[in-house]
Amino acid sequence: MAIILGIDPGSRLTGYGVIRQQGKQLEYLGSGVIRTAVDDLPTRLKHIYAGVSEIIIQFKPQMFAIEQVFMAKNADSALKLGQARGTAIVAAVNHNLPVFEYAARLVKQTVVGTGAADKMQVQEMVTRLLKLSDKPQIDAADALAIAITHAHSLQHSLHIAQHSQKTTEKMTALLRTRYSHGRFRLKI
Fold this sequence. Notes:
Layout: E1 2-8, E2 13-22, E3 25-35, H1 41-59, E4 63-67, H2 75-94, E5 99-102, H3 104-111, H4 119-129, H5 138-179
Parallel strand pairs: 1-4, 4-5
Antiparallel strand pairs: 1-2, 2-3
Helix pairs in contact: 1-2, 3-5, 4-5
């Protein structure tokens, strides 16, 4: 069982979503938006740090997933987004959480099935996947999608590890059988 905090960073609106993963089952724990209504960037970053820290204390996640930086058309916007993202990551690291990063296209591909999905499609699929009665706010839905992507990644990694272990055990048994009767001895 793992509690995963997903973050969709923004300098004015930072979405967050918290889910619990138990095997293949996902359970919605909470979501929302950290709003920074002030104009100066340093104060916005302070609010993001405080908000993410408060969410971590409240939900006690074991993992932190965040969207990777993408190139925006406006360099100033990209820099502010990067600073907001960095602030959220520092909050996670200061609470000893491992940080995982996912590209926006991968998140959309995982949740919707296409890397070119729009925000409304992501919101709709998050609502369905988590069996929510109401649609979460767009930024919160994006954050939940990031958490779902991490849960999917964990599940996939576990499957690969189990398959790899079974393959190794089969190969070891085969090698023991083949080489135990000849002049070669295999010590494992």
